[in-house]
Amino acid sequence: MENARMKFYCDESRCIECDGCTIACAEAHELPVGIARRKVITIHEGIPGKEVSTSVACMHCTDAPCEQVCPVDCFYIREDGVVLHDKNKCIGCGYCLYACPFGAPQFPREGIFGSKGAMDKCTMCAGGPLTTNSHHEFELYGQNRIAEGKVPVCAAMCSTKALLVGDAESVSNVIRARVTARGGKGVNSSYGWDKAYKNQ
Amino acid sequence: MTNSFGDIQNAKSIFIIGCNPAVNHPVGFGHILKAKERNNAKIIVIDPRFTKSAAKADYFAQIRPGTDIPFVYGMLHIIFKNGWEDKKYIEDRVYGMDEIRAEAAKWTPQVVADVTGVSAETLIEITTIYAKNSPGTLLWAMGLTQHTVGTGNTRIAPILQMALGYMGKAGGGTNILRGHDNVQGATDMGCLSDTLPGYYGLVEGSWKYYARMWGVEYDYIKSHFKDASWMGKPGFTLARWWAGVLAGKPGEDAIENAGTNLKALVVMGCGITSTSQNLKIQQGLDNLELLVIADPFVNEAAILTNRKDNLFILPSATQFESSGTVSATNRSAQWRYKVVEPLYESKADQDIMFELAKRLGFYEEYTRSMMMHLKSDGYLEMTPGKKTFQWPEDATIEISRTLRTIGMMGWTPERIKKHTDNWHMFDEITGAGKGEMKGEYYGLPWPCWSVKHGGTPNLYNVDVPISEGGMGFRNNFGLEKDGVSLLAGQGSAPVNSKVDGGYPEITKENIEKLIGRTLSASEKDLCGANWKTCTSGKLVDLALEAGLTPYGNAKARAVVWTFPDRIPLHREPLYSSRPDLVEKYPTYADKANHFRVTTKYASIQKEKDYTKEFPIIMTTGRLVTMMGAGLENRASKYICALTPEMFCDIHPDLASQHGIKNGQMMWVHSPAGTKIKVKAKYSHTVLPHMVFLPFHFGGYMQGVDMTGNFPAGTKPYASGECANTVVSYGYDIMTQIPASKAGLCRVEKA
After folding, report:
1. Which residues does B484 contact at the CB level (< 8 Å), separation at least 6?
2. What tens digit of pLDDT does each residue of A142-172 get?
3. Domain limits at B108?
4. How far is B181 from chain A (nearest CA, A)?
5. Where are the domains of chain A?
6. Could you say which architecture CATH assigns to the domain A6-197?
7. How far, in whole angstroms, is CA B288 from its chain's centroid?
8. Which of A98, B148, B306, B563 has a 20 to 30 Å separation from B17 between CA atoms?
9. Is B344 part of the contact surface with chain A (CB cutoff 8 Å)?
10. What is the pTM of this model?
11. Which chain A positions have a beta carbon within 8 Å of B692's beta carbon?
12. Which residues of B touch A27 (CB under 8 A)?
């Protein structure tokens, strides 16, 4: 049996930019203000037929570019596909930020010159390398909800259930059912062939 | 709300006018998105702005603020012209549709286009889609109500539903979205100045009923009034309490308040600094003799005022530190359990009120009924041995035995707790219970006629029996008008009804005839004069047994012969953006003694053409991150990181005309002479001749930072100008709600 691979997916036909995911994440992990592990992005705001909102965080890539460029090898990928890193190894160089297609890595900005410090990013609520659910783990990485059998807080809080998380197959089953119900096309359907290639 | 959020999933078309549920009801909006997935429901949004709801719509019309009535008449014009109306429904269940038809005839698509700014093609397309995708549900909120014609707006919307036969159907109805947790409950409890709890009117009979149900003498209640005549007069409203303070000063409106001004104000959990005419609110606060504020966070009324004395801030508890029922927007109840005891020195609202009542000397009288119980004859007696009451359960019992007009008789604490504890046993869409909860709807949406009744999920639905939540329209306005019966037509009673047509509300007098049997003497003894005051419940029980709605089965009326507008009529806003239309669609004459305050209409509208100095349309609304005056939200650092400061949505074309860059500060000036300094935010959600302001900020007044008035450690993370400082004069003709949505302004670079 293959291991489940955990994935995020944001159904942009349902995302309404309520920012519930952003706030839930910040509150749950008690992040410093200015660290946005998850953000909601709206493009073409106010343009009929074109406005789209979607929630973005670390996508926990299968072949994670951050891991490949890290000079101190602080990243590690769990068997379920969750991409994590060791803040005690991280030197705050920012290479991962340049490599990441989603702008996920965050750097603390305290101090007058905005010192970088260790990188922070979405852990899919799976904590870090320290003892699971220890105080120390919480301080550096936030809650470890996965270890407690809970859904990551952003998706749990999503008001319209646009943001899905789980093993890739379950997520795609949910999305497939929604896309089929919507007739498989139109402005608010997911990215399929017609959107990606304009029906060419 | 006639139906519920869940029921929206049954709709085939969803007509959203004057509300923005994607922002104001994000969780509820999920049901709308699901309707689109389940039913391919067509989403139609009518709004002056391209809102987040509009971004998810199939059809969108960008309407000029304040022209909802013409838009809907335009739809009715097309519906009647094509014969798309539900003729049988109108014949059997609606009074006065002919007058609507005559008015609609005037609103051709071309006339509507001129008045509303929406093209004839768009109007026709939207009307066709809405009429052809049955059933359609209609949603609104403050975008319809906050106008001088707000009452007309809230009448024309159900009239549209009535014309199409969409009222009283699963997937149909008018779903009016309540803006806050428990607003529905607050209204039901009579937090209004013109009703007693449960919408009992301010008449002697109602007062006497309440005296009986509170276990006090009528004369005792009367002794607290200047004289009995004041028991029948509406009080001031939230919108204009300050007029009661300022009356007598130059330029202020006259009041009729027994020869005295308002002297003291107690504010409990209300963001009074964000209603309208904020400068007047500040002056009102400054001129009181006493101001008491009770809130979990420091209410900005305390910050806005310049007063130095007789201002008291009481820390009240949050919802997590208290318990009791909370009513959802669909008239259903949940039990809210206390999570923690009130923190620090804060007290729950009821404890603050109990202490106040003790000091004022009527605590004993008005809490006594919580130590009483109903005898089988419907009269109260002291419960033997009961020395104290159990809060809040005894209050809930008092509510359920007293608020009969809206059918709260089934709302016992035990039942509501059981629903809340077993919420997973109910269907997401219909609210129907499963297993042990079978036969009941989640939260027992009122009317819940008795302790055995399961609640009414969709109002006015005659397709199901009363026992499963069926009902007709209420018989509330007499039996006939001008020779036409006001009772429903033959064959339009809820199924399994003893009477298959219209009938009046149930009284001791008519009950035998309606149920078709003679009552025994002992049964008769238990009957009160009518079902609303028959506290033994006998009349309601007899009605339910016969499948009859206790309040009768009548026609809905499209014509209200006691209102200034018999049918909804378009009237331009006081500060009209189309002065050329004012003569044809003038506002009302000035109204004396409107909730005790003389209220200006025509005298403002006729004064001048305001568009010369104030050419830009201004509207206000909510942000997804905040609600109300924003006191709680601005105490969250994470929310403030997302919306850190007050801003104005302005179209780049308009901004560039005034040399305002994105992110620069700008002034917004109102015709009332007030101004606010805010940050410009370029946005395409507004048209180039209008601006949008969110109303959640406070702490600044016309460029002056007042946040130094916050007690140490209580200042929110974000402060700013309040949009309502530049919202001008204007109040609804019936309810006095402020007209905040269709204003005018002038902008300049700061």
Report:
1. B95
2. 999 999 999 999 999 999 999 999 999 999 9
3. 6-176
4. 16
5. 6-197
6. 2-Layer Sandwich (3.30)
7. 28
8. B563
9. no
10. 0.96
11. none
12. 638
